[in-house]
């Protein structure tokens, strides 16, 4: 099984003309997505807070986060982006992936569109 990559455009919601596009590794082991800080700064984003994350080696670290629009495979979703180091590989986390209605097809190393986005019924459906 190999790695799955997808082109993703991130957009500053306060200034939608400011975008950055890159090749993201789809990481189903990560909740949130990650982009090197330099690209987030370049499109005018600023940290909106900090969150504790557990790294693959078990180490816990506090990292800055912000909110963006992510566009990939013809879908636009809102999501949390973690500020990564300058050399970090951009990651597309499972929250954005599932919000867009996708899962990973590991055999073909591509995203697979789900037949429908899951939504738990809240009260009476109309």
Task: Summarize the helix and strand pattern as letters.
Answer: EEEHEEEEHEE
Name of the top-level CATH class: Mainly Beta
- Count of separate DSSP helical elements: 2
Shape: globular
> What is the end-to-end distance?
43 Å
Main sheet? 7 strands, mixed
Rg over CA atoms, rounded to whole Å, is 15 Å
The amount of helix comes to under 10%
Q: Remind me, CATH topology?
A: Cathepsin D, subunit A, domain 1
CATH architecture: Beta Barrel
Task: Note the beta-strand portion.
Answer: over 45%
Category from helices, strands and their pairing: mainly beta
How many β strands by DSSP? 9
Poorly predicted runs are none
Report the CATH superfamily: Acid Proteases
The overall average pLDDT, rounded, is: 90
Domain module tally: 1
Please describe the structure with a list of short key phrases separated by commas or semicolons.
single chain, 126 residues, mainly beta, Cathepsin D, subunit A, domain 1, 9 strands, globular
Describe the structure.
This protein has 126 residues and is mainly beta. It has one domain (5-113): Acid Proteases (Cathepsin D, subunit A, domain 1). Helix content is 10%, strand content 48%. It contains two helices and nine strands, in the order βββαββββαββ. It has helices at 37-42, 94-99, and strands at residues 5-11, 19-27, 33-36, 49-54, 60-72, 75-84, 91-93, 102-105, 110-113. The strands form two sheets. Strands 1, 2, 3, 4, 5, 6 and 7 form a seven-stranded mixed beta sheet that branches. The model has no long low-confidence stretch (mean pLDDT 90).
